[in-house]
């Protein structure tokens, strides 16, 4: 079972619907025991970094996520990806979950519209299990104004947005994955990524 962590930051039902479509067992939950028992975890989210971290703290889920993300496949989506880093700077400096080294800052792309919204092409950087079996031209859907700043060794794929090189998928080489885009809204490419994630379950 894949636990879709429900902490009030939205975007959970579209993820659940995508898993249902793929025949993957998913459960929306804020129950720490269900998170412990799950075979894999997805942390979705839309909104602002500080308020999302506050909701995680208020839900009592911060520590359980930090513990379980290193034991089983974990995927952060959009804001959920941003939260896996050490710090965010949206409105104010705020500590993140610290699952992968890095920080989250506003996109700097002169002459480009912010937020970065719409379809963009993945550029593969390093091998990543959940990016297997994708076409060479793989476009995915983004909606965000902030981006990760992450060491190259964790960068699995990026997209180009004007002069900006935006991390699109990060991977710690073990269990933690982050997708800045929305796989659940990215058509067959996104479904294949979720299918690959489901395939990680032992």
Q: Would you kindly provide a written description of the structure presented here, covering whatever features stand out?
A:
It is a single chain. With 202 residues, the protein is an alpha/beta fold. Helices cover 25% and strands 30% of the residues. It contains six helices and 14 strands. It has helices at residues 12-22, 32-37, 49-58, 62-68, 79-82, 187-198; strands at residues 2-5, 26-29, 40-43, 74-77, 87-88, 94-95, 103-106, 116-121, 123-124, 139-144, 146-149, 155-161, 164-171, 176-179. Strands 2-1-3-4-14-13-12-9 form an eight-stranded mixed β-sheet. A four-stranded mixed β-sheet has the order 6-5-7-11, covered by helices on one side. Strands 8-10 form a two-stranded antiparallel sheet. A hairpin with a 4-residue loop joins strand 13 and strand 14 (176-179). It is globular, with a radius of gyration of 15 Å. The mean pLDDT is 96.
């Amino acid at each position: 079972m894949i636990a879709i962590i429900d902490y009030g930051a939205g975007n959970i039902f579209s993820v659940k619907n995508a898993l249902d479509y793929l025949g993957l067992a998913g459960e929306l939950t804020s129950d720490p025991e269900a998170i412990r028992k799950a075979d894999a975890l997805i942390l979705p989210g839309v909104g602002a970094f500080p308020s999302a971290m506050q909701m995680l703290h208020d839900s009592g889920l911060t520590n359980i996520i930090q513990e379980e993300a290193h034991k089983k496949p974990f995927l952060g989506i959009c804001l959920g990806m941003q939260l896996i880093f050490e710090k965010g700077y949206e409105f104010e400096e705020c500590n993140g979950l610290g699952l992968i080294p890095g920080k989250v800052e506003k996109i700097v792309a002169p002459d480009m519209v912010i937020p970065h919204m719409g379809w963009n092409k993945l550029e593969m950087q390093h091998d990543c299990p959940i990016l297997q079996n994708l076409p060479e031209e793989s476009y995915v859907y983004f909606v965000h104004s902030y981006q990760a700043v992450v060491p190259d060794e964790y960068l699995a794929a990026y997209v180009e947005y004007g002069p900006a090189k935006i991390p699109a998928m990060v991977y710690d080489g073990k269990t933690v994955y982050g997708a800045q885009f929305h796989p659940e809204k990215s058509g067959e490419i996104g479904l294949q990524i979720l299918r690959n994630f489901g395939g990680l379950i032992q």
